[in-house]
Design goal:
3-stranded antiparallel β-sheet, 7 strands, 153 residues
Amino acid sequence: MKKQGGFTLIELVVVIVILGILAVTAAPRFLNLQDDARASSLQGLKGAIDGAAGIVYGKAAIDGLEASGASSVDGITTAFGYPTADADGIGEAVVGLTTDWAVTAVTAGESITYSFPGTASAAAACIVTYTQATGTTVASAAITSVTQGAGCQ
């Protein structure tokens, strides 16, 4: 009779225990993706706002309205060619902005801030602020900024 080779029950249990320990230590790194998802969503919103503002400005320039302090381009209110910082300006320019994001702060004629709807206090610092143009110079054009506080990084 030949002696059969293989693993003993103790060897198999030891391997399973080692794999379990590795899984417990490595799993939190791969499972805690919510902060990364929030940060990516904010960057996506910033890109959407930048893109929409650029498209509106291009249309305003074609119509000769880029130097006008107050005008309208395809139903979007503009200031110096860029969307205004309100629901009728940037809110109309970006598809889904008013339905998917919550307005957290508005400074009339200056800026509007968006965040995740129903955010907890830890995620309240996860915001994108759109500042409308105040003149025709490049420095005063539409600017977006992203703030990533606790719970967003």
